[in-house]
Structures are given as C-alpha cells and as structure tokens.
Amino acid sequence: MGPSAPRVVLALVLTSAPIEPDRRREEALRLGPECGRCLSTCPADAVGHWARDWAACNKFRELNGFHRLAGLLTDIVRESEPEEQIKLIHSPAGSEMFDAMLHRVGIVSGCRRCVDVCPVGADYEASLKGHLDEIPEDMPQKAGRLAEMAQLEGAGKSPAALEKHRRWIGKLASETGA
Q1: If you average pLDDT over residues 99-126, what whole number do you get?
Q2: SS3 sequence, 84-130?
Q3: Longest CA span, the chain
Q4: What is the mean pLDDT of residues 164-171?
Q5: Rounded distance between C-alpha atoms, residue 173 and residue 35, angstroms
Q6: How many CB atoms lie within 10 A of CB 153?
Q7: What integer pLDDT is reported at residue 26 of this predicted model?
Q8: Gap between the Cα atoms of 68 and 62, Å rounded
Q9: C-alpha to C-alpha distance for 152 and 158, rounded to whole angstroms
Q10: How far apart are CA 175 and CA 158, in angstroms?
C-alpha cells in the first residue's frame, strides 16, 4: 500500500484481476509510544500499549452502529403502548438510524481522529502537518500513560499485545537498530 497506508480506508474490493500481493512488511509502519499522537487525540481513550479497546472505540467510531440500533429497538420493545412504539419508530432517532443504514453514514466511519493525526506517510508531511500539529484532546493523564509506555519499551519490556499483533506491526526501529 505504500507510505500513505494510514489514511487508506478500504471497505471492500472485489476483482477477478490477477493481483500479485505486496510482500509482508518487515519494519514497523507505526511509531508506537515514541509518537503517541493517536493516544493523545482519542476521545474514547481507547488506545493502549500496542492495543485498542474496541468497545470504547466503537462508541465514537460507529456512531450509528449496532449498539445504537440495538438501543433503539430495545426502547421500542420495552414500550408497552403501541402508539408510543410507533412514535419511537418515527422519532428523530429512528429516522437517523434509517438514514444511516440506507447511506452507511456513521456505521463504521464516525471518529477518525487517530487516523487524521498519524504522522506516518508522505501525505501527512505534505498536506496535513501544519493543520494537525496541535492536539486539543491531549491531557496530562494521557501524556503520563504515554511516558510509561515509552519507558517500558526503553527498558525492553514490550506488552503481550505487541507479539499478538506482530504480523501487522512488524519490527520496531529499536529491534532493528534503525
């Protein structure tokens, strides 16, 4: 995918064309705790040490996802009066859910702050850097967690999540001597 991969979002590609896959990535594309911009910007505080809390992330990433649909349907089923059930179906929440499903708005495309602020890729330096240098969501607690992660890695203590996701992460610069 090249150096701009963080801002490439593919939902589905179907083709009968013969395509040679890229070689497996050996060096890490992501910078991890030495950068930490994703942790600093995350409104869900879902970024861990080479891991992500998907349940927390999805509350922002899937604004109109399953959890919201399930909540609306639960409210409708719990309502004992048929007239009130119909009001819920025709409510703004019902209309928004229908529109989201029809146009796939916010189903899995809500929050993208981590992707927006990621400095990996030639497109960041050329197009985004000046606009995204400052991270308004950053706070001392996040900076402290990030410092702890960097300190652990500096001491050679990587979390289990790094090995679990090694296939997607690759070798870190500290592991290759780069």
Answers
A1: 78
A2: HHHHHHCCHHHHHHHHHHHHCCCCCCCCCHHHHHCCCCHHHHHHHHH
A3: 68
A4: 81
A5: 12
A6: 19
A7: 75
A8: 9
A9: 7
A10: 11
Q: What is the full DSSP assignment across 131-159?
A: HHSS-TT--HHHHHHHHHHHHHHHTT---
Q: In terms of Cα–Cα distance, which of 5, 10, 4 is closest to 108?
A: 10
Tokens of 53: 């809390």
Region 10-14 average pLDDT: 72
Q: What's the rounded Cα separation, in Å, for the pair 161 and 71?
A: 31
Read off the pLDDT of each residue in 69-89 and give the average, rounded to a whole number: 93
pLDDT mean over 128-136: 84
Most confident of 41-45, 94-98, 153-157: 41-45
52 pairs with which residues across the strands?
47
Say what the pLDDT of residue 37 is. Answer: 92
Give Cα 172 to chain centroid, integer Å.
20
Structure tokens at 174: 């500290």
What CA–CA distance (Å, rounded) separates 38 from 32? 9
| Between 169 and 142, residue with greater pLDDT | 142
Q: Are 28 and 34 in contact (CB under 8 A)?
A: no
